[in-house]
Amino acid sequence: MGQPGNSDIAEEIFTPDVVFHNPISPLGVRGIDEYKAFAHRWYRGFPDRFFAVDDEVIEGDTIAIRFTITGTHLGEFAGAAPTGNRIRVHGMNLFRLEDGKIKEVMAFFNPAELYDPLGVSVPEPPSYD
Fold it and tell me: Do 97 and 103 touch, CB atoms closer than 8 A?
């Protein structure tokens, strides 16, 4: 299986209190340690994952990146045993920088593109009532 990326780079590119909002983590991912754990779940589930930058827009301390993630489900992910199925997820990340480091990330993608090939139901979003 593929090796994880260098998660030590997180300290170089993120603020210590980084917040990562995304459709598969309803409570968000807060701080570098939680971000590393989130990334390692992806590494385990999709050891051949590839994150392609399809387009980018940079304006001041804001960066928008349109991406495509591909990979093969070869490890446990989201409670699903490996299926060998391929994923192809299209989305966009919006980064907000503070003092040259990433302070906040908002990821936008259709979770069904990730979960359907794994045979996993898309979780209900949290209720804020």
Answer: yes
How many residues are present in the chain? Answer: 129
* pTM for the whole structure: 0.84
Q: Which of 10, 64, 14, 55 is nearest to 37 (CA)?
A: 10
Residue spans per domain, the chain: 7-118
Q: How far apart are CA 15 and CA 71, in angstroms?
A: 28
The architecture (CATH level 2) of 7-118 comes to Roll (3.10)
Q: How many CB atoms lie within 10 A of CB 108?
A: 14
Nearest to 56, CA basis, from 109, 14, 89, 92:
92
User: Can you give the C-alpha Rg of the chain in angstroms?
Assistant: 15
Residue with tokens 């994880």: 4
Q: pLDDT exceeding 90 applies to what percent of the chain? A: 76
